[in-house]
Amino acid sequence: xxxxxxxxEALTAALRAGEVTSVELTEEAIARIERVDKVINAVCVPxxxxxxxAARRAxxxxxxxxxxxxxxxxxTVKESYNIAGxxxxxxxxxxxxxxxxxxxxxxxxxxxAGAVILGKTNVPFMLQDWQSFNExxxxxxxxxxxxxTSGGSSGGSAAALASGFxxxxxxxxxxxxxxxxxxxxxxxxxxxxxxxxxxxxxxxPPAPALPVEGDLAVCGPMARxxxxxxxxxDVMAGPDPLTRGVAYDVTLPPARHQRLSDFRVLVLxxxxxIPTGSAVRAGVNRVADALVDGGARVERHSPLLxxxxxxxxxxxxxxxxxxxxxxxxxxxxxxxxRAAGLSADDQGLDAARxxxxxxxxxxxxxxxxRRELHRHGWRQLFAEFDAVVCPITSVPAFPHDHNPDxxxxxxxxxxxxxxxxxxxxxxxxxTMPGLPATAIPxxxxxxxxxxxxxxIGPMFEDRTPVRLAELLEQKIGGFQAPK
Length: 483
Prior knowledge:
One of its GO terms (cellular component) is endomembrane system. 37% of the residues lie in helices and 16% in strands.
């Protein structure tokens, strides 16, 4: 039997029943990577010797009566997570030989749960792209079309899952970096509520792995089924044991509903700042039709929805304020002069990004206050709805574009060029207020490329969008392996 595309849930059941060993699963996964990854280039840092040893230990532990959530299941990890003894580079050539000495918190939790780590997956330079390529490890190709991107920044993880390289992976998300690759590769991902998963050790080299929470960014699970997302989220969730974990444990509330007919869902397909391509629109409507067919209450408009233009502008400012804080002084001064020269009437996304790059602390506090007003608006909306269905980005996977100036890149939406960076508006809808969002497969484009949508849920009610994802998987199907 071939095990490579089975879910973690199915593999765990087979391991418990004695139908297969972790060593057998691991050897099959390694053989598949060695055979198939030559053209995909998803697993940039193999760790096969230690994986084999971990698999042997898992089999011995199971023989001794142990049974942990992921005991013996092969998985991969995004390159940006620290794993002791393996390089963490974030795609930066100057850190090609940087070796952390301890595991990231999320990696430690994987190991404690019994997972067998096959290696690390590719990322873009500094994790700052919806493509995964860098000078150290090269380009990760989309398993559905090798001339197209696998997404970013967790593109290596999504491509690995779509290619059958392990049952699970972990990634991170600041500008859609979990959801975008899942959409492009036809897999599942979950961006948790901000702060739900400890991020220590998911840090650019050579920064120390301190227990701090940077604004907006989260760590989260990726899988080939919605139930596997829930399984891996339970493993990852929880405060850092060095900070809030001293006093608190996590107990996520159950999903609001267990039946599709009980859900109240707001469906969005239009954004005022960027068009929705026909393939993505069809995916959104396919999900909407499935909800209606399943008896859910579906609405297309609500006066409770926070203003999408303001949300996108605020997200652009907060996102770029993070980047601006790390710009060298001379470059920062040039940005400040450019921002000062902007017309007060220029309220476009490019202007918002530039202004955000040079935010003062006062500016950031003002933006944070406006963000809190948006959060309150979402609380009011989620008193009337259980989830929001909307695009992750406007198009399926696009051809590789390695122009170093992202501002010069364009994205083709149904034959019309649009600014590349404006793709972020849909991802930012959940990121800016810190809401959970689950990416699910929603069909194929006319070219046969995967199309996904996201299910945005109430803050710290992560089980609600994940449960809705599971119900929709039963209704419309889920992951399909590339031909």
